[in-house]
Amino acid sequence: QETLSNCIWLKALLPLQAPLSTMRIITSSIYPRSTNKDYDLSLDKTIDYGKSTENGIDIDISKYIKPLSAVLRLGRAGALTDHTSIFYNIDLKSHKITHGSTNSHWYQIGLWKNLSSLWSSKLGLDSRNHFNIHPDPPNPQVVGKLVPDMDKAIKIVTESHYKMMKDVPLVGWDVAFTTEGIFLLEVNLSCNFFQGDFDMSYYIKFMNDYFIDLQLYQDNKKNE
Fold first, then answer.
1. How does pLDDT run across 169-184, given as a tens digit for each residue?
2. Interstrand relation of 181-188 and 170-178 (parallel, antiparallel or unpaired)
3. Residue 18 has what DSSP assignment?
4. HEC profile for 12-55?
5. Among 186, 177, 222, 197, which Cα is nearest to 4's?
6. Contact, 128 vs 135, CB < 8 A?
């Protein structure tokens, strides 16, 4: 069976015997929304979000689709998949890896273990949650590194969101950077941010307007 392998720059961030490690990119869509006039979807004027053609008319995808967050999931040594991994947040403008975290506290049994692991991670009191380097040998430096081809990945997911499911509000894409190129491995319609940073004010407005539109749609259906 054909397999995919991590590309060179990604291997440099991983321990020995690491699994294929992917990036989760979340995108949002305001198509078609009655409240879309107040949105600032621009992330960077230099980024190509891709284009689509409908009825002979070129569509600027950046008017409807916005990338919200990106998290690099660096797998652990000996793991079969990156479901066991350290999450590294990527700044969407600079493409720099800013910090690492884990969700292992989600699976701690017992109230005290859950609270202590959560708050110690937030407050920086637990050295095990300081992930400037990967915790597995040879412990490569991760935080501060730039992610190559981030623009290409953003274009792939924004273009795919518009062309495949532009009426779906939030989509999580699992993107693989491999020796064969960039691939979309999976799409998640009930998506996990994996502790990535995102524009909270935009997200709150986005969700609020979405539910307003759903209510308007429901009211209109009742009046038909």
1. 999 999 999 999 999 9
2. antiparallel
3. P
4. CCCCCCCCCCEEEEEEEECCCCCCHHHCCCCCCCCCCCCEEEEC
5. 177
6. yes
